[in-house]
Amino acid sequence: MLDKIPPSQRAGIDSQTAANNAKDYLSDKHASHVKPHSKGGSNDPNNIRWENGKDNMARGDKTMTSQEQMRLNAKYHFDNLTGAVKAGLQAAPIGAAVGAVTTVPFSLLTHGLRVVRGEISAQEAATAKRNTPRFYFVHLLILYFAVL
Fold it and tell me: Are 47 and 35 in contact (CB under 8 A)?
């Protein structure tokens, strides 16, 4: 039944976050039978879909129509996409910070070697605007807030 939850809705940075995400996703859902027990259905996972509880209760013991199944399938994919976008937006600032921090040593090394070889002066190395972590970090922040 865990496989019936969209992957992005059951993922997290650790097991606790993943469990909370799955719990939040399932908070208003029922395990709906495509073919109810009263009509010969079973508890086989292929006969069960996660569905809004109100819709499940309204259907009662009727068999789920193909239209309802297609709607649930589309909702599954939509929930997966929105969960992935949400996770990406949450990870963007951390990714930008890690990228900036890991770029610093290489940028310093590059400018230091260029000074030693006489390609640029120490003053030029200190004031270099391009290819610096700050340059990339500022642009990543602009992109991040543009997406919001």
Answer: yes
DSSP secondary structure, 77-93, as one string: HHHHHHHHHHHHHHHHH
| pTM (two decimals) | 0.59
Q: Which residues contact 73 (CB under 8 A, 6 or more apart)?
A: none
State the residue for tokens 């190395």.
125
pLDDT, one tens digit per residue, over 5-64 is 888 888 877 788 888 988 998 999 999 999 999 999 899 989 999 999 999 999 988 999
Read off φ and ψ for residue 97, nearest 5 degrees. Answer: -65, -45
Q: Compute the distance between CA of residue 14 and CA of residue 71 in angstroms, rounded to an integer.
A: 31
CA distance 94 to 102: 12
